[in-house]
Amino acid sequence: MIWLALTVACSLAVAAVFKVSERRGLDRTAVLTVNYAVAGAVAAVLLGGEARAQEEVEAGFVALGAATGALFIGGFYVFAYAIREAGMGLAAAVMRLSVVVPFLASWLAWGERPTGVQLLGLALAGAAFFLLARPAAEPVRSRAPADGSAGRGGTRTAVALGLLFLAGGLADTAMKAYDEAFGATGSRPLFLLLVFGVAFLVGLGGVVAAGVRTGRWPRAAAAGWGAALGLANYGSVEFVLRALGELQGTFVFPANNVAIVMGAALLGVAVWGERLSRRNWLGLGVAALALVFLAPR
């Protein structure tokens, strides 16, 4: 359980760094790209210190690491797109609900059968996500456009949320796949070096392309906050892999997500003076109950 607790702590640190960088008006993509560079550097240092050298690396190991890295950075771009189309509240709720994908994969693909109480906890977690998500402000329209753009907008929103659900769920499932296929024999630092290295290269391409297109380049402050984010990000992934080595995925993924949502809401109140509605406080109570039901017995 200690690894799961450390995962939640690191994930909350990631959320806090993102919050501060957003308030300072820093380029999110640049911060994220530096984050992956630093996380990859940490993985490289730990890989160099491994007493056991991995003489031969399987092609599946490399492919899984590269695919996971692409899912990490791709999920960020999809999340940004979903926010534009559906609003922050709905996008955040769908991102957390994507926990259903690794939950089902752990159950159906790897035989980690949940109990009836845990299934009830998952259902409560889904309710908590929507109660805690802040609703997006929708513009008031006096009448529907005659050119059919409203229908196209609804389709774009559905596509954006569907892609977000898949991206978030597949990224977590990839972590579980690593634990099942290579957790006992593979090098975790090497796997994470592949993950963060690929994510860094994709992010770097995005930063350079945006800079060339607009003539505006990220400020130097993005590097410092990106470095802090990278350390926390590496810890969150390292610890969730360790948690998966000891606990079932049907518990780790939903419990991790519920704890992060609860912690982020309380952190917002305590540190940034954010106000929670009655609906939000109800969501916190439901989330706490979900954690009780999800706990392994």
Q: What topology does this entry show?
A:
Blueprint: H1 2-23, H2 28-48, H3 59-86, H4 88-97, H5 100-108, H6 116-132, H7 149-182, H8 188-214, H9 221-246, H10 249-272, H11 278-294
State mean pLDDT (0 to 100 scale): 87
Strand tally: 0
Number of DSSP helical runs: 11
The coarse silhouette is: globular
Order of helices and strands: HHHHHHHHHHH
Number of domains: 1
Low-pLDDT windows of residues: 135-146
Q: What is the terminal-to-terminal distance?
A: 13 Å
Helix content: over 70%
How can the largest sheet be summarized? none
How does this model look, in words?
By secondary structure, the protein is mainly α. The protein has eleven helices and no strands. It has helices at about 1-25, 30-50, 60-85, 90-95, 100-110, 115-130, 150-180, 190-215, 220-245, 250-270, 280-295. Helix 2 (about 30-50) runs antiparallel to helix 8 and helix 3 runs antiparallel to helix 7. It is globular. Residues about 135-145 have low confidence and may be disordered.
Descriptive terms for the model:
297 residues; mainly alpha; 0% strand
